[in-house]
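TASK: fixed-backbone design
INPUT:
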């Protein structure tokens, strides 16, 4: 996503080089969505993998429709939209089949059963291999899974976003469903690199995020500084500790840290080889306790779109 929106200006040349470097390092799971840059990101990813399609497990999403200029996206999980969105994504990606197709958000006007039946029809048509849901509650997941097997659930999860521990992680484990944490680095905050919104471009999403504002930011910086001191003791970066912590939560978790630069990609990938002791993992949890994180993770309009 960050290659095409939300995190400052785009650099397609470096983004494509980053994707290629990821494949070279053995990363094979790439995640995009038709909403990222209004389709631009799917075109970018599709072009980057065209000659290496067999190396990639490709995920994309449907369900967001652009609102009026300046207004947030709206959610559409109707069967008609799902079918048309899939065809459009296949075209932009330049592929014959999507490996994992998510419903980006729950459409409260359309029963989840109807949305999943439409997505299952895409599997029957050979356009999609597996189905996923994003930011979904345990109850909705059970209803969906009863219609057609759900392969993965994607939700925000990191040291400073622990909501999935309230039910969806246990439900995925019970049903044998993979869990895909997005923003496992807390939108880059857990790297320790962001100290003020003044560092960010005018178009950066984080300028509107409550966690990056005023007293919330001041309080949260104390937590990330604690993580930074622990990282120095262990001899790794704060980002690597944050990623290793997420990876330690279970073999069915596959975090997707976003980056648009090769140097950060290589740092992230190295975290997959980091083996931490139970004592070190407890120290990491204690450095960033969920009860101490200040501010909501989204502005109110975006929070209203979450199925909780």
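OUTPUT:
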């Amino acid at each position: 996503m960050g290659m095409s929106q939300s995190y400052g200006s785009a650099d397609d040349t470096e983004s494509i080089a980053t994707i290629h470097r990821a494949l070279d390092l053995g990363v094979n799971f790439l995640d995009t969505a038709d909403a990222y840059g209004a389709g631009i990101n799917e075109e970018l990813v599709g072009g980057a993998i065209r000659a290496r399609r067999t190396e990639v497990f490709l995920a994309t999403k449907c369900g967001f429709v652009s609102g009026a200029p300046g207004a947030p996206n709206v959610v559409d999980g109707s069967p008609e939209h799902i079918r048309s969105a899939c065809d459009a994504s296949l075209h932009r990606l330049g592929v014959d089949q999507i490996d994992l197709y998510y419903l980006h958000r729950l459409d409260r006007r359309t029963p989840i059963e109807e949305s999943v039946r439409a997505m299952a029809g895409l599997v029957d048509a050979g356009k999609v291999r597996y189905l996923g849901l994003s930011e979904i509650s345990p109850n909705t997941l059970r209803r969906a899974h009863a219609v057609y097997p759900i392969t993965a659930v994607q939700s925000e999860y990191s040291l400073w976003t622990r909501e999935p521990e309230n039910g969806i992680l246990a439900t995925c484990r019970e049903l044998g469903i993979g869990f895909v944490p997005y923003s496992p680095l807390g939108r880059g905050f857990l790297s320790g690199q962001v100290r003020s919104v003044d560092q960010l471009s005018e178009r950066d999403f984080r300028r509107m995020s409550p966690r990056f504002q005023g007293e919330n930011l001041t309080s949260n910086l104390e937590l990330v500084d604690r993580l930074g001191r622990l990282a120095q003791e262990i001899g790794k970066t704060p980002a690597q500790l944050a990623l290793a912590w997420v990876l330690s939560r279970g073999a069915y978790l596959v975090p997707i840290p976003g980056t648009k630069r090769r140097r950060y990609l290589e740092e992230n990938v190295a975290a997959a080889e980091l083996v931490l002791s139970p004592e070190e993992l407890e120290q990491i949890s204690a450095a960033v306790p969920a009860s101490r994180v200040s501010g909501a993770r989204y502005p109110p309009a975006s929070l209203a779109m979450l199925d909780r």
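COMMENT: The beta strands are 29-31, 57-62, 64-65, 74-75, 98-103, 128-134, 152-156, 178-182.
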